[in-house]
Amino acid sequence: MVNDVIREYEAHLKKAVEALKHQLATIRTGRASAGLVEHLQVEAYGAPMPLNQLASITVPEARLIVIQPYDAGMIKTIEKAIQHSDLGINPGNDGRVIRLAVPQLTEERRREMVKVVRHRVEDVKVSVRNQRRDAIDQLKELEHEKLIGEDDMRRGQDRVQQATDRCIAELDQLGKEKEAEVMAV
């Protein structure tokens, strides 16, 4: 029973790390990346859809993203979604493809992006701590119902805390790597 709680908790931790990786991929650095726009929500066919389902996204140069819609009629809609996003990039199109020139980030904008990175890392850490609290509550409930002993509960709490510490360290490392990437000129 303790192992079930811990296995479930560790699965939540893996999801949290993956979610952070996904969120950090959308943060703009000075270099073009398909991850900046691929999950951008575009209103298409009556429902919001991620851009990567509506167009092929390529990065032919270090500072250029080329978006080629599968349906040429979607160009204006995709362009509008990019303009309304927080990317700060103005799209240009030639009727068939949309080109996004990724400008060099200013020092001020880099610092803002680092703040965004730190904020997102902290949000995920908060969710991890909430999951830890829930896992420990489950262990206490098992002990309260006399399904496990006090020793098993304490060992389970220790294992939950160790898993939390490993996850927090991994989240911090991901944040530091992204901050370094953002600050690199």
UniProtKB/TrEMBL annotation:
In alphabetical order, the GO MF annotations are: ribosomal large subunit binding
Tell me, what does this protein do in biology? Responsible for the release of ribosomes from messenger RNA at the termination of protein biosynthesis. May increase the efficiency of translation by recycling ribosomes from one round of translation to another.
Q: Which family does it belong to?
A: Belongs to the RRF family.
Full protein name? Ribosome-recycling factor
Q: What highest taxon heads this organism's lineage?
A: Bacteria
Query: Does the keyword section mention Cytoplasm?
Result: yes
GO cellular component, alphabetical, reads: cytoplasm
UniProt-listed Pfam families:
RRF
**The keyword Lipid biosynthesis is annotated on this UniProt entry:** no
Q: Lineage of the source organism? A: Bacteria, Bacillati, Chloroflexota, Chloroflexia, Chloroflexales
InterPro entries per UniProt: Ribosome_recyc_fac, Ribosome_recyc_fac_dom, RRF_sf
Q: Which GO terms describe its biological process?
A: translational termination
Domain Ribosome recycling factor residues, every copy: 20-183
Q: Which UniProt keywords apply?
A: Cytoplasm, Protein biosynthesis
Residues that span the membrane, as ranges: none
Under the heading Gene3D superfamilies, the entry gives: 3.30.1360.40, Ribosome-recycling factor (1.10.132.20)
Q: Where in the cell is it found?
A: Cytoplasm
